[in-house]
Design a protein that fits this description.
disordered N terminus, two-stranded antiparallel sheet, mainly alpha, single chain, 20 helices, Hydantoin permease, globular, 495 residues, 4 strands
Length: 495
């Protein structure tokens, strides 16, 4: 009897499903271990360039983004040198985002599914788990930081609650009672937005990013009014480098910009898959990255620089800046806006990624919503406040996990553009048949795994070994180049 290829599955079959308000197409005869309604390729892609623009606004417009942009101006460079570094770094991010967006936009599948082409249909769980764990850690930390800002504002209006912010008197697992209240409130708000599905997330980020801009411009105008334009010094730190001596520092700043976006850069396919065309992706990336990031950075620097003449000290935290303003309405509006912005970045950068990643581990049992809630619950159990407040722990946890991002990106790109020649056989991404294009022994491509281990080991060494510490800021580039190079070399050798 002739075997049909691919063989019939016992679960999901060809057809369409309506999930989270979006239409998905099940690949014909997809294996139930590899597909569900959330991981299946989209039949109808509805996002335009504005949606991608809004995605990047939500990713940039956050307390972390504000502090990051301001911190680059304290590296000892002049303002124009920092701006050149910012623009160069974000143009590099824009280029790499366009590269990683294409395979998912063309095929309509999320990041962990597109990884099956390089790692094998089961081996893709390796990059999915790595990205998922990173998302869980950062999700918890971002939620904690946002809740800490919320607690600061609450204490400004209700100082009598300060006793419940005392860890010694009212503390549990390293967090005060008021801290727990703020953390759980932010946790619930984010979960509610996520639970509504991708359409709700799209609507949220479409509004959150522009809303932050409105408040940022109002805050900058207020600070300029209070300080007087002639009193503002845009060099936020002492200028120590000029001429050729500034080049290494500028290269470090460029690398830091790329590293800051390395997480959403890796799994950007989770969002580009929803776009109608690749041109929409490119337009959205252009307006959302170089244009938006530069504008946000300029407003950030103006506001931060104005804190010196207004408050007598440099304040890089926007929540603290808002809390210092002697206007109740302004404080409430500013605090709520930045909290909304942090919710936005947490959802797009961490929640959505983890949802797809964990769903990919067991599609039959874990839906997209279930994967996201697994990440949310795990973020509580890792007690992110203890992680954040322990520099050694956060160094070893996040830096070591982050050392895998560059290699994973390099392998994915090298495979799609050099090995696959930009041709993805979508049906085979969901097949465990031995004749399937992406089926290897036990479903794992050993070439990709070896390249990942090699590149990640060197990236980790750059982070941990004192002799290589000078390369630590460049681990994304090192890992990406080594991952891509090793993967191509192994494939060439075994052909």
């Amino acid at each position: 009897m002739t075997m049909q290829y691919p063989p019939p599955a016992t679960g999901a079959s060809a057809g369409r499903a309506l999930e989270n308000g979006l239409i998905y197409t099940f690949p014909a005869l997809a294996n139930e271990r590899l597909s569900n309604a959330d991981l299946a390729p989209l039949q109808k892609q509805t996002w335009g360039s504005y949606n991608i623009f809004a995605f990047w606004m939500s990713d940039v417009h956050s307390v972390g983004g504000y502090i990051f942009a301001g911190s680059l101006f304290a590296l000892g460079l002049s303002s124009w040198q920092v701006l050149v570094s910012l623009l160069t770094g974000i143009l590099i991010v824009n280029y790499f985002c366009n590269l990683v967006a294409r395979p998912s936009q063309v095929s309509g599948v999320p990041y962990p599914v597109i990884c099956r082409a390089s790692f094998g249909v089961l081996g893709a769980n390796i990059p999915a788990m790595i990205r998922g764990l990173i998302a869980v850690a950062w999700y918890g930390i971002q939620t904690y930081l946002a809740s800490s800002a919320f607690v600061i504002v609450i204490l400004k209006f209700f100082p009598a609650l300060a006793i419940y912010a005392d860890l010694a008197q009212h503390g549990f697992l390293g967090l005060s009672a008021l801290g727990w209240a703020g953390f759980l409130l932010l946790w619930i708000l984010q979960a509610l937005v996520f639970w509504k599905g991708m359409n709700a997330i799209k609507r949220f980020i479409d509004l959150a990013g522009p809303a932050v801009y409105v408040v940022m411009f109002m805050l900058a105008a207020f600070m300029i009014y209070r300080a007087g334009w002639h009193h503002i010094d845009f060099n936020l730190g002492q200028v120590r480098y000029s001429g050729w001596s500034a080049v290494p520092v500028m290269l470090t700043a460029i690398s830091l910009v790329v590293s800051y976006f390395s997480g959403p850069l890796l799994n950007f396919g989770d969002f580009s898959r929803y776009c109608r065309s690749f041109d929409d992706v490119k337009r959205g990336n252009f307006w959302g990255l170089p244009v938006n990031f530069l504008a946000f950075s300029l407003v950030t620097v103006i506001t931060t620089a104005a804190t010196v003449p207004v408050f007598g000290q440099l304040i890089t935290d926007p929540i603290e800046t808002v809390a210092r303003i002697d206007n109740v309405t302004a404080v409430i509006l500013g605090a709520l806006t930045f909290l909304i912005a942090t919710i936005g970045i947490n959802i797009v950068a961490n929640f959505v990624s983890a949802a797809f990643d964990f769903s990919n581990l067991a599609p039959k049992h874990i839906s997209w919503r279930a994967g996201g809630m697994i990440a949310a619950i795990a973020s509580v159990f890792i007690t992110p406040w203890n992680l954040f407040n322990n520099p050694a722990m956060i160094h070893y946890t996040l830096d070591l996990l982050g050392a895998f991002i560059g290699p994973l990106y390099g392998i994915l790109i090298a495979d799609y553009y050099r090995i696959q020649r930009q041709h993805i056989h979508v049906q085979d991404l969901y097949s465990m048949h031995p004749q399937g294009r992406y089926w290897y022994r036990r479903g794992v491509n050993p070439r990709a795994v070896l390249a990942l281990i090699f590149a990640a080991a060197i990236s980790i060494a750059c982070v941990l070994l004192p002799a290589l510490r000078s390369l630590a800021d460049f681990t994304w580039f090192i890992g990406m180049l080594l991952g891509a190079g090793a993967y191509l070399a192994i494939n060439h050798q075994q052909q």
